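Researcher: Please predict.
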Amino acid sequence: MLVLSLFLVFLVGCIDYLINNDISLSIFYLIPISITTWYTGDKFGTIICFASAIVWFISNLNHIESPLSSPSHYWNASVRLGFFLTVSYLLSELKMARNREKKLVRTDPTTGVENRLAFSELASMEIKRARRYGHSFTVVYIDIDDFKKINDYGSYKLGDIVLQTLAQKLRNNVRDTDIIARMGGDEFAVLLPGIGYDTAETVIARLQQQLVHLMDENKWPATFSIGAITFLNPPESVEEIIEKSDYLMYCIKNEGKNKVEHIIEQ
């Protein structure tokens, strides 16, 4: 991208050198500046800004009438450079703001993990990968039993602390490539890409053990209902994953809660 932008700067400079001085091409230098800043960051964008200012200065040497030592030439070049740097900075800030907003939309504000929207997007990508490469994956649904007791035991602030601690515990006990999402309320989902039934059994047992230890350690009155489905063949949609996981969780709740159930979906 940097090489392409330098080539564009050189191309604009050549055209600028050949045409009449009455026609300004300064705005066209913004094309490589914008491309570089947006796709590679403000560091390389700054390089292209300086390159553009230098090329503009050189390309206009054959049009100047006053001596080269005149301060006006260097002042004009400095103004052009300042303009280019300002545009590059604003573009960089715009992209960072866009990325922050994009992250906020897909992040649960209480726990900092992905939210339901992000889970749906990432699960959709995993379905496509599984369909393409023929591998299985596992979805683990975790529900805090009688979460209201925690709020009654402490306060709503304590409830948030429990959710935050639980999310961190989940993150510490899965791979970086695994996806953790708060699906709403006291429900969490863990997506394990490329994980079959036997490996998932080990992961689920570890998660359950860690979560139970977390509750005992902090003396929080809560247990967990955990339902997991290993999809040997990718389902048709994310909605199917959520629907089947919700149903499995509903069955566990009806059977008395505080239980783990793991099934295989062909």
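Model: The first strand starts at residue 137 and ends at 145.
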